[in-house]
Specification:
The protein has 127 residues and is mainly α. The protein contains one helix and two strands; from the N terminus they run ββα. The chain has a two-stranded antiparallel ribbon with strand order 1-2. The termini are far apart.
């Protein structure tokens, strides 16, 4: 003969039969919660590492901007000096061209004077 099982709301209820299932479910939930906790800790570490990397990149970009600004200032000074030297070069080239033209005129005049002197100094028979 079967002994009647206790019932809940008229349905048969075997507490002992449900216990292993409840224990398994609680153990499973605890495992899942532990896994979730590990994942959150991993995410926190990853986020912290990303924050550190972002801060390092920010410092690098600021350093690069400062260096670029310094190089731009140096380049501007060099450009100013180069422009001044280019102007001086053009002025000196023009003066040299004038001196070269003057020298050619002087050379022609000296050649003429030498020719005239040769004519005056030459013996009377050579004329």
């Amino acid at each position: 003969m079967n002994t009647p099982h206790p019932s809940v709301d008229g349905l048969p209820f075997a507490l002992e039969a449900c216990m292993p299932t409840l224990e398994d479910r609680v153990a499973n939930l605890e495992e899942r919660m532990d896994e979730q906790e590990r994942l959150r800790a991993s995410q926190d570490r990853d986020q912290s590492e990303l924050g550190l990397k972002l801060a390092a990149q920010d410092r690098l970009l600021k350093s690069l901007a400062k260096t670029q600004s310094e190089h731009t200032a140096i380049l501007n000074r060099h450009t100013t000096i180069l422009n001044r030297h280019t102007g001086m070069f053009e002025e000196h080239a023009a003066i040299l061209a004038q001196h070269t033209a003057d020298l050619h005129l002087l050379k022609g005049g000296v050649q003429q004077i030498i020719g005239m002197l040769d004519t005056l100094i030459a013996p009377d028979g050579d004329r």
